[in-house]
Hints:
Blueprint: H1 12-34, H2 73-85, E1 90-95, E2 98-104, E3 110-111, H3 116-129, H4 139-142, H5 160-164, H6 179-184, H7 201-215, H8 219-228, E4 258-259, H9 261-272, E5 276-277, E6 280-281, H10 285-291, E7 296-298, E8 301-303, E9 308-309, E10 328-332, E11 336-341, E12 346-351, H11 363-376
Antiparallel strand pairs: 1-2, 1-12, 3-4, 5-6, 7-8, 8-9, 9-10, 10-11, 11-12
Helix pairs in contact: 2-11, 3-7, 3-8
Amino acid sequence: MRQRSAQGGTGNGTMEKNIIRLLTGVATGFALMLGACAPVQTSPSQLGEYSPQSPFPGAGWTEVPPATQGFSAEGIDRAVAYAKQEGSTSGMIVHDGLVVAKWGDVSRKSNLHSARKSFMSALIGIAVARGQMHLDDTLAQLGIDDNEPSLSPTEKQASVRMLLEARSGVYHPAVYETAEMEASKPPRYSHPPGTFWYYNNWDFNTLGAIYEKATGESTFEALKTEIADPIGMQDYRPSDGHYVSGGFATRYPAYPFNMSARDLARFALLYLHNGRWRDQQIVPAEWVAESTHSYSDTPTGGYGYMWWTSVPASGPRGPKVALLRPTYWADGHLGQYAVVVPSLDLVVVNLVDSRLTSKRMGQSKMERLVWLAESAENATGIGSEPGQMSSTQ
């Protein structure tokens, strides 16, 4: 089992890859010397296709038998069967950039719901690095207000950073909220900015509007040019997104979009490699680390900048949890997940298309799916199977 180094490598695996690169380079140079008069042929790797020395997919993903990556085929089959049983309509398990399992139609696009927010976090990180946005700017400085009842002077002291952390203290009406979110919303003005965590669609929707004003780009076009194109997404188009407005309730629309499992897996792999895709830094590495760090405790872990994490900001995790290693994920209603386990070079993606099933996969079921994938590799410290989890999660 290979542990990632502090530089993002994979221990002995990195040494082997470097040796292969060196030998390949020597052989290529010798061949060119011998055949100087022959036409120069371009290798597949130069065309951006997958090569064994690269942990990234090319135009398409490379699928390999689980055993080649140290996984039990029976264990992977068990993970896939569990996902399907619990309502997953498509998904992938990716190790070291190679697909060891997939199920359903991984090219079929469906609504990511709140998993969209992790993409907005990435776009904001790019904008911050360019100086287009500043995390400590307040709503007052940015001229942000909302429909009646409008924001109070205290609410306007919330900063961009607080919105990213879902700690704005602004409990104004918002759109695209689940019944659970509406039911748990604190009373207006009950918590000063920065003092209380509440998973707040007003924060996330307003960030979308702030981003678009700062950059002059629509969210869906920016997602294509800043992320989808550079990492070779196969299915995403700007037309896959749309805005959900709130009428007189609020000025700030939600920005849901559809995506395929195989494109979502590319995004997760991008984050696994600290925002780098091949030799191009797409999202600043510092932002990846900062946004996947916990700033608040949740019932089962922590929350960063629109990313969920298995590590609380303080104290231990709650009971009946199955993620035993530091893990973070994008999380959407009904069961949309892009899960990253850095220490195992592991990505697990799950989609639940409500047009195909009435089931849902809550967080506990996602954790069990990831646990089953980890167990299939017989990773050190997996331990015994987690206890029975609530069917309502």
